Amino acid sequence: MGTSSRLERSFLTVLENLRELGADWAVLGGLAVAARTEPRFTRDIDLAVAVKSDEEAERLVHALVRSGYRIALDIEQTGAARLATIRLVHSREPRVFIDLLFASSGIEPEIVRAAERLRVLGADVKVATVGHLIATKILSRDDSRRPRDTQDLAGLLRIASPADIEETREALRLMEDRGFSRGRDLREELAAACREMRSAPPGRT
Questions:
Q1: How far is 199 from 69, CA to CA, in rounded Å?
Q2: How distant, in Å, are the alpha carbons of 93, 99, 158, 162 from that of 196?
Q3: Domain ranges in the chain?
Q4: pLDDT digits (tens, 9 = 90+) for 4-49
Q5: Residue 99 CB: number of other CB atoms within 10 A?
Q6: β-pair partners for 71
Q7: Fold designation for 3-199
Q8: Residue 42, helix vs strand vs coil
Q9: Strands 123-127 vs 116-120: parallel, antiparallel or unpaired
Q10: Measured on CA atoms in the order 159, 163, 169, 173, is the torsion positive or negative?
């Protein structure tokens, strides 16, 4: 089975599992960027999940483990002392990573609440807005270690409206206020990224 088939199968399976558990979530990461801009390759499934506490996140993860998943990685957000991300793999598709983001950026509830329905891998699902995708890409940007994020950011900025950029600024402000900025001036980084876009020669973004 090809990578795209494995990804689609894993995606549809986890969506059904989350629906059965009553979880509130939205697509992030490469799948969301592809839905908003242009198709691009990804091996991972990133989902923002809205929860009220780490305990609620843990109950959801334990329920998924009972459904055939195993925990491959768990990441804490040290600045805010929150359970940030759980990486799962399903026993049927062990080469596809499923990242559940509970408190990675600190704005997961806002991401899920504002998400819009789009078609992704044959399913009608909630997808993060352009503004929120830009905000998460600013937060995760590392040009040397994560060049794909930089390319995604450029593609998103190309299609962003003034309203999208305003949503990004507000999202970055919330990240900073809630202790998720990783010690960086995220709004200044957004301004710098916008300047880079304006000054880049055609074909270089």
A1: 46
A2: 40, 30, 11, 16
A3: 3-199
A4: 789 999 999 999 999 999 999 999 999 999 999 988 888 899 999 9
A5: 20
A6: 88
A7: Beta Polymerase; domain 2 (3.30.460)
A8: coil
A9: antiparallel
A10: negative
